[in-house]
Design a protein that fits this description.
There is one protein chain. The protein contains 17 helices and no strands. It is an all-alpha fold. The protein has one domain.
Length: about 375
C-alpha cells in the first residue's frame, strides 16, 4: 500500500516542532517572545506527535510478530538512548546516577510511554467510550504526585491523544484536508500564538510538563478544569496544524517516515550546548535567537537525511535484537478436499429425502 504524502509531511513538520521547542527552552526566561513561542509549541506539539503514534498503532495486537516489533523497535532503542542520555546528563550536571533505566533521561520518556501505550492498544478496542475513559484517567492523574520511575505523569497526560489516534481512521483524517479548513486553521493558530504570548508570563510552564495540581499550587477542581481546557486546546490546535500542512509530495515527504532519527538524536548537541555555554551567545540577542530557531529546524531536517540514517541506523533501528527472539512456527492450513462439481442425486422416496436432509444439516 502506497504512503500518502500528506501524512508524511505532517510527521516531518511535527518532529521539527519538537526540535525547535527543545532548542529554545534554555532561553525561555531571557525573552518574552521566546517564552510565548515556547508556550505555543508546547500546547500542542507533543499531543500531535502522540496522536500520530496512536494512528500508526491501529493494527497493534498481541501476536508474536507484533510483540517482537514492539520489543526490537521501541524497547531496545529506549534502553540504548536512555543509557546514552543518562551518561550525558551525568556529564552535564555533574550529579545523579549515570544509569537509571527505570527513570527515563530527557526525551527518552516518549519511547517508554509509547511502549506502555502500545501494550494497552488491544484493550482500548473492547472498552466503551475509550476516548472519554482516557480523558478521565488523564485528568485524575494530576491529583497525585506520580513523579518517579517510568515518568507516569506524561504517560497518563498524553494517553487521550494516543487513544484518539488509535480510533481515527484515515477516512476521518481526510476531513482536515479540505481547503475550507485552511483559512480557519490559519486564523486559529495565529490567535493561539497571540494568546500564548500574552498569557505565558502569567502561567507556569509546568502545565505543559504535566506536573501535579498540588505542585502547581492550585486546587484539585481548578487543576482538573485547567487540564480539560489544555486537552481541548491541544486537540483543536493539532487539527488546525494538520489542516495547514501541504497535501502534495514535497522534498520533505520522503523523510517523514524517519522522524524517530530527528527525535532521538537532536538532544545531544542541545545538552552539550548548555554544558559548554554555547547559549550565552543568544542571551538578549534577538537576531541570535532567530538564527538559533532557523538553525535548529535545518538541523532537525538534516537528521532525517539518508547519510545520517545510514550512520545511526544500528542504534535507532537495530537489527540484531530480532535474531534473539524467535517466532513460533505458523501452522499450515490443511488443504481442503476438492469440491464435487456434480450436485448430489435427488432422493428416491420421502423417507430417503428425510435421511438425506438430516445428513446435510448435520455436517
Amino acid at each position: 500500500m502506497s504512503r500518502h504524502p500528506w501524512f508524511d509531511n505532517v510527521r516531518f513538520l511535527a518532529v521539527l516542532l519538537v526540535v525547535l521547542g527543545h532548542a529554545i527552552a534554555p532561553l525561555m526566561h531571557e525573552a518574552h517572545l521566546v517564552r510565548g513561542l515556547y508556550a505555543w509549541i508546547y500546547a500542542f506539539h507533543m499531543p500531535l506527535f502522540v496522536f500520530i503514534s496512536g494512528h500508526l498503532a491501529r493494527s497493534m495486537d498481541f501476536t508474536p510478530r507484533r510483540l517482537r516489533g514492539l520489543l526490537t523497535g521501541v524497547l531496545v532503542p529506549y534502553l540504548v538512548f536512555d543509557a546514552a542520555y543518562s551518561l550525558l546528563h551525568h556529564y552535564v550536571t555533574d550529579s545523579g546516577p549515570p544509569l537509571s533505566p527505570l527513570d527515563p533521561a530527557f526525551l527518552t520518556w516518549f519511547l517508554l510511554s509509547l511502549f506502555c501505550w502500545r501494550l494497552t492498544a488491544p484493550f482500548w478496542r473492547v472498552i466503551r467510550y475509550p476516548v472519554v475513559v482516557s480523558v478521565v484517567i488523564a485528568v485524575l492523574a494530576g491529583l497525585t504526585d506520580l513523579s518517579g520511575p517510568f515518568d507516569w505523569p506524561r504517560t497518563f497526560y498524553f494517553l487521550p491523544f494516543f487513544v484518539m489516534g488509535l480510533f481515527t481512521s484515515p477516512k476521518r483524517l481526510q476531513i482536515l484536508r479540505r481547503r475550507a479548513f485552511g483559512l480557519a486553521a490559519a486564523a486559529l493558530m495565529g490567535i493561539a500564538l497571540m494568546v500564548a504570548y500574552v498569557a505565558s508570563p502569567h502561567m507556569s510552564m509546568g502545565w505543559f510538563l504535566t506536573e501535579s495540581y498540588d505542585g502547581l499550587g492550585v486546587s484539585p477542581w481548578a487543576g482538573m478544569g485547567m487540564r480539560l481546557v489544555l486537552i481541548g486546546c491541544a486537540t483543536v490546535m493539532s487539527c488546525a496544524f494538520m489542516a495547514l500542512v501541504p497535501r502534495r509530495r514535497l522534498w520533505i515527504t520522503g523523510m517523514g517516515a524517519f522522524t524517530i532519527y530527528a527525535y532521538l538524536l537532536h538532544g545531544f548537541p542541545r545538552s552539550l550546548g548548555v554544558k559548554l555555554g554555547w547559549y550565552d551567545v543568544f542571551d538578549h540577542n534577538p537576531l541570535g535567537i532567530v538564527a538559533l530557531a532557523v538553525g535548529s529546524l535545518l538541523f532537525g531536517a538534516l537528521l532525517m537525511t539518508p547519510p545520517v540514517r545510514a550512520l545511526f541506523r544500528p542504534l535507532v533501528e537495530p537489527a540484531w535484537p530480532a535474531r534473539l527472539i524467535t517466532l513460533p512456527a505458523e501452522e499450515k492450513p490443511q488443504a481442503a478436499a476438492p469440491a464435487d462439481p456434480s450436485p448430489p442425486p435427488p432422493p428416491a422416496s420421502p423417507a430417503r429425502e428425510l435421511e438425506w436432509s438430516g445428513r446435510r444439516w448435520a455436517g
